[in-house]
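Recall the central idea of this unit: under ordinary conditions, the amino acid sequence of a chain determines the structure it adopts. In this exercise we apply that idea directly, starting from the sequence alone.
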Amino acid sequence: MLIRTFTTSLSMLALTAGLAQAQNLQSASVLEFGDADTLFVADSIGGAIHALDLSDAGAAPAEPAPYNLLDLDGVLAEALGADPRRFTYHDLAVHPVTRDAYISLTATISGAVEPAVVSVARDGTVRRLDLATLASDTFTLQDPADDGVTFWRDIPAASFTVTDLDFAAGELFVSGLSTGEFASTLRRVPFPFADAASSTGIEMFHAAHGQTETRAPVRAMTVLDLDGVSTVVAAYTCTPLVTVPVSDLQDGANITGRTIAELGYGSTPLEVLDFQVMDMQGNAADYVLVINREMDADLIALPDLTAAASAPGLAEAVPYLGATAGVNTTPIPLSGVFQAADQDAQFLLALRRNMDTGTMDLVSFRKGVYLRLSEFVSEYNFPDYEYADNQFAEQTRMFQNLLKADEGFPDQMR
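Accordingly, the structure predicted from this sequence is:
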């Protein structure tokens, strides 16, 4: 059970207030782990962030292992007593020790629409977090997005009060919208929560739109050390990539981020992930992966990103719709991904819409590969295929056997 007494230096009064607010979530949107004991849950509609105590979550697995849960809709519907056709998925995070998946969603349970946070293990075991019993603390955001503004008739601006979270060096970085002309806001919230949070307005040049923008929110971000400078790497809709030194994020300031790339038009970034990949020779390389809803993911080598962050940014519109500019990227075929997270040293974890069945799947992708071999039919799949007698063919055979085992097809190994 994920139940215990909160052990940080919170007063009993603050604990009681936080618990009361956490169990009355108006929404459960962005998730972020601060450490193995703390899961941050953003309530964008309620204008708050809840820190849930998960210190009894469990033990670490023996070794990295992939997820292969197909039809997550059905798995969750059975566990929650919910309508499998009425799930809206919001975010995905991976517990840093147990490697269980934590998912925020909105579900229709017994006819009522409810926000929920669930944990899902590799074997399909589902637990809904009971906010009435989990110790918690709550931070209330000042100047949340104007609840009188709506987009496309029925999408409240308040749902963008928090668009992403990242925890670094004891601070929770919060992107989203606030009120005012500089509505695009980056907040720094120390944890354990205190009253010393800062709020900074962010503007950036959008090369696909040919204009400076002050209200478009950061949609996905990560905080990285780039050549000794702690830096927010932020992706925006349609799709600028922007860097902001953390030292520039001063309370009450309005600042300009550096646009280091235009990744293409007509897409919403979902995640900015940073991780290390080991090649077949055991050499490590660091990358940043921008996962997009409507187009391929963009893989960026960390040295290229670092160089771009110290070079002059983009200041002119791209020459035509769809043109890209700035830092070099490699397109990665992660189609259908709705949310993703860094699972462990070997895998990325993704909530992905199945293109054949339409259901949501919870599946792993091996880092450095970024595909699931079982979704392809090629020359290699014919039963009488024989690998050639050369080094390239042997490497291909070993590579395919690795992916077959990852995806639950050890009987197909050759």
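Residues 375-412 form one domain.
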